[in-house]
Amino acid sequence: MVQYVVPPAEVSNWVPPPSVLPSNISPWLMIPPASEGGNMVYKFYSIADDKVFGLKENPDYPVPDDDAVLVGSSHGWLALFNERNHDLFLWNPLTGRHVKLPLIETLDLGGGRGVVSQVLVSCSPELQDCRAMMTYGPEDRLAFCCPGRSTEWTQIGDLYHTLDDLHHILDDDEDDMDLARSYMSFVYSTKHKLFFCVTQFGHFEAWDLRNPDSPMLTPIDLSADEENYPIASRSEEELELKKLCRTVKFLVVNQKSGDVFLARRFILEQVDTNGSFVEVNYENSVTGYDLGYPYKTIGFDVHKYDEENRALRYMDGGSLDGLAFFIGLNHGFALSAGEFPELKPNSIYYTDVLSPPEWIDCIYGGHDLGIFSYQERTISPCFFPCDVKSITRIMSVPTWFTPSRE
Residues 120, 331: contact at Cβ < 8 Å? Predict the structure, then answer.
C-alpha cells in the first residue's frame, strides 16, 4: 500500500516495511515532510539508528485529507482533524490504512466551535476491543468511540466542576461560578484496562470503556506531600522561576509494568535570547500571542501513582526508575533504558504542545522540544537545536511516533 523508496538527499534511508520491523523498537520522531516530484515524503528520525528515514506517499493510497492537522499519535496510528469540514480519522503512515471516526458534531457543543484537542487509541483501531478517547472544544471535555463501529461520539465525565472540587482555589465571592471540567491529559493502561485522566485543576479519574453501552467511572482521590506538590523545588530561586511558568500536565504509563506517572511541565511563556524571563504583553496582539519572544520549557516535576496507598509519590533524587519518558501530542509512555540502550535513563523526551496555529505568522512554534535530564536538571537537543538563539519555527510540529507491525 505504501512505496518504500529512497527519499531525498537529506534523508539517510528508507522506511522498512512493517513486516520486517523489530518487535521491540524505540520511538521515532516524526519531523516535517518534504515534497519530491509532486509527491510527499514523510520523514522520521530514529533515535536508535541516529538517521532520518523517508516514506514516500503512494498516489494510489494518499493521505485521506491533505488539509488535516495532527491531533494525536498512539500505537503506530496518527489522528488527523480537518478544521474546515471537521473530518476526523486515524491513519497508519507505514501501511497507508486509515479508519474514519465519527464527526465531532455528533456531540453537543453547546453553541461552541467544533475543536479537537487530542485523540488517542487504546490499541490498533483494527482490533475489536479498541477504544478512541478524545478531548474536544471549546473547553476540553471528554468523549469516546469504538473506531470503525461507532457512528457517534459518547460524551463522558462531568461538564463542570463541583464546588467541593474547587473549594481550595475559589474565593468566597466565586462560589457561584461554573468552571468547565477541562481534561488536560489522558492515557491508556493495558495492565489496568483503564483510561487514566487528569483535569486542569489536578483531579484524577479512571474510565473502564470495555462495555461501550455502560462506561464506568472510578474517581481517584489522591494524597500528596504538600512540600513537593503541586510544585517541587530544590531552592527558593527554582521555586520562584517555576511560579512564573505556565504548567502543563501529562500522564505517562510504563509500557511494561503499567505504572502511571504524572509529569508536570514548566514552560516560560517568553524568554530572551539569553534564556531569561520576559514579562508577557498581549495588549497589542490580536492573536493571543506576543510574537516577539518564544516560549521555552525549563523543567519537569514527576510524581508516581501509588495505587495501594492512593497517593502521588514525588520522584526525588533525580531518578525515574531508569525510565525514559516520551510526552507531547502522543500518548504518554515510558520505556526502560536498560532494554533500549540508545535511550538516556531518567530522562524526558518532549515535543512542543503550545505551537501557534500555522495561520499565525511568527518566528517560533514547534521548536520547544528536547531531552530533559531529570537527574542533572539539564536540557540537551533531540535532532533539532534547543538553545534559545537557534530557535526557528518548525512546521509541522514534530511528534513522537511508535512504529508498529499492526
Answer: yes
**Tally of residues, the chain:** 406
Burial of 19 (0-12, 13-18, 19+ CB in 10 A): exposed
Q: Which residues of the chain have pLDDT under 70?
A: 1-20, 22, 58-62, 64-66, 111-112, 163-177, 280-291, 405-406
Tell the residue number behind the cell numbers 462506561, with chain if given: 215
CB 340 within 8 A of CB 324: yes
Query: In angstroms, rounded to a whole number, what is the distance separating the alpha carbons of residues 91 and 78?
Result: 5
User: What is the chain's Cα-based Rg?
Assistant: 21
pLDDT tens string 6-53: 334 445 566 666 666 767 789 999 999 887 777 778 899 999 989 898
